[in-house]
Amino acid sequence: MNYLEQERQDALAVSYVLGSMRGKARLRFQGLLMQHLSLRQAVWRWERHLNPVVEQLKPVMPDANVWQRVTIRLGWRAPEQAPPTSSRSYWKETFAVAMAACLALFLLLPRFDPADPAPAQLAIVQNSQAQALWVVKWEQQQLKVQATAAVQPLTDADYELWMLPENGQPPISLGLLPQQANTERAIPPSVNGLKVAALAVSLEPKGGSPTGQPTGQILHTAQLIQL
Asked: Which pTM was predicted?
């Protein structure tokens, strides 16, 4: 497949942004994002087109049963903690899950002073089953990362976060990702002045990449959204 054809890139980018690209196809596309600047630009362009549509949707408060299923799907709650739920139509549950997830993130994140010089940005790193693994908040020169219960713990390797510059420069390491709880660190000075095309997560040896560039498999990518 020729991934450099504009029409094909747009089709793949739309599927990726809307979340209809799942499983192995999504993982394969995330690897391609690391290799092709034009693909990253296509994803960024379609996010700018589609995000305003999402922002026009009115939030809907789910009932208790749907909310419990949301917390399980996001990895914030173990499955055995949730009581049985009644069956619901697929579209209604999916919409409720999406709206509830947005509401949950809004409630969990601290409020920002409108006088802040630059708005904060948020990225949600998801697996191929659309479970949230990490919530990444980029605020001025600080990076705050919250791990969820869905993160698979590793003993002999680490997850490393990378920033993919929009101008096609090599990825820049943003440090190791926590496997539980949260962490906060300063954003590297080398990132200053660069526009972010996407974030990526790679599997690296214990302690992180020995070369300063991704050496292991690219597991996930995510887009930053302005709050």
From this structure: 0.54
